[in-house]
Amino acid sequence: MKEYKQKIIAIIGGGASGIFASLRCAEIAKEKNIDINIKVFEASSKFLKKVRISGGGRCNVTHNIFEVNDFCLNYPRGRKELLSPFQKFQAADTVEWFKQRGVKLKHENDGRMFPISDSSETIISCFMEEAEKYGIQLLNKKNVKNINKLENGKLSLSINDSETFITDSVLIATGSMPKGYELAKNLGHSITEIAPSLFTFKITDTILENLPGTSFSNAALTLKIYGERSFYEKGPLLITHWGLSGPALLKLSAWAAREMMHTNYKAKIIVNWLGLERQDDVEKLLATIKNSNTKTNIGKAYPKELTKRFWHQLLIKCEIQKEINWSEVSKNQLNRILNNLFKCELEVIGKSRFKEEFVECGGVDLKEINFKTMESKVCPGLYFSGEVIDIDGITGGFNFQSAWTAGWIAGSHMPFNSN
Ligand SMILES: Cc1cc2nc3c(=O)[nH]c(=O)nc-3n(C[C@H](O)[C@H](O)[C@H](O)COP(=O)(O)OP(=O)(O)OC[C@H]3O[C@@H](n4cnc5c(N)ncnc54)[C@H](O)[C@@H]3O)c2cc1C
Question: 126 with 79, same domain?
Fold first, then answer.
């Protein structure tokens, strides 16, 4: 007589990736008629905490790039490894997944996708209703303190120091919590260097004084980190109370996350405010303004892409009186303007948190995960998804997409694990 066996699945972490994995797990088990018991252990009292606060409370669910190769370009770490997972579940699938459950997503001009309600509660309610429909057990205040491998291949979880739970398959989806890295390490995994990503730069310089809120639509940025390599990024830039922010700068912080940590966030950033490709182009632009405004104050005629307040601040940095006429501007003064417009050197003296979205880079070593299943290559029956893995994206919905994708793949395979 065949032994009746119910599959028991434990998911550690009731965040974005863990919950999404649990739903996929339940869905595929139903489809294949597998008797399954899915438990999600969440250390805190609330599920989906980051989803709730994400995107300023609107939840930037994904990004509307539906070509997988292009999508992968937005991951400073994990770009190569995500190619095959995205071929199975990518941004277009996320859009469809939510649509089938009555949640429509819209995209903004920069490609970021949000629920049309503009509220992260829509996403949370959708997940919660689905979990209830499938009878997934969502257990809060269950802090998983340890995982032990048993001789029969099963995994034993110690919860809150008082409970033990034995299971066939475990998914670690603990985000960037140090405990998750420790659990993985204890089961034989290596953890790569952890560093904050998506941060803004602290800079004190005359050119930025009294200008918070001033933005540039297409600035070109070169980051030179002492003793490390240089990084380049182009796009919108914003002056803040403490230095620089905006999409281009946040991307730069993601590309250079580890190198910046190594130098304690000291670096030099060279800003080309107008984003013109060649110095010649800026020279020509200044010559045109000079020639057609000879009798005008230099403070009144300036490149139309810049604000008057920024231009005046630039003149202060160049030590040029804004009251002089363009015809009085010397060659040396013109050169100072050119340099500060095209290659303005600023000292980065530290970092600040970006409130909208921040992540950690680093985590479980990519070489130790089978990206076809998200199963550990070191410990059978153990799976990973979300930020606990050494994968992180730039700002714009890429971090959630990798969390959904890895969760979906782990969830698709865990019911078939043969322990
Ligand atoms: C303010 C903010 C806004 C953001 N906005 C966006 C956005 O708009 N778009 C985007 O793409 N990304 C955004 N992100 C990043 C995104 O939230 C994360 O990349 C994503 O949540 C990672 O999902 P995860 O499931 O791996 O981790 P999490 O969502 O962090 O979930 C991990 C869960 O595991 C639990 N846990 C940890 N250890 C244990 C344990 N030992 N036992 C039990 N439970 C445990 C934690 O309590 C937590 O609930 C934002 C991040 C922040 C901080």
Answer: yes
Which two structure tokens, joined as six digits, stand for 123? Answer: 């996403």
Burial class (CB in 10 A: 0-12, 13-18, 19+), 409: buried
Write out pLDDT tens, residues 26-52. 999 999 999 999 999 999 999 999 999
Classify residue 323 as exposed, middle or buried by CB count within 10 Å of its CB (0-12, 13-18, 19+). Answer: exposed
Distance CA 340, CA 335 (A): 9
Task: Determine the structural domain holding residue 318 and report its residue range.
Answer: 199-353
d(CA 279, ligand 1 centre) in Å: 43
Same domain, 53 and 147: yes
Sheet with strand 344-348: strands edge to edge: 344-348, 267-272, 215-224, 230-239, 243-245, 199-202, 350-353
Q: In angstroms, rounded to a whole number, what is the distance separating the alpha carbons of residues 371 and 393? A: 17
Indicate whether 1 belongs to any domain: no
Classify residue 417 as left (phi > 0), alpha (psi -120 to 50) or beta.
beta
Q: CB neighbours (10 Å) of residue 197?
A: 28
**Which of 62, 63, 185, 400 is the pocket-test mutation for ligand 1 (most atoms within 8 Å of CB)?**
400
CA-CA distance, 58 to 284, in Å (whole number)?
44
| Helix or strand (DSSP H, E) at 84 | helix 83-88
Average pLDDT of the residues of the chain: 95
Ligand 1 pocket mutation pick from 54, 65, 361, 384 by most atoms within 8 angstroms of CB: 54
pTM of the model: 0.93
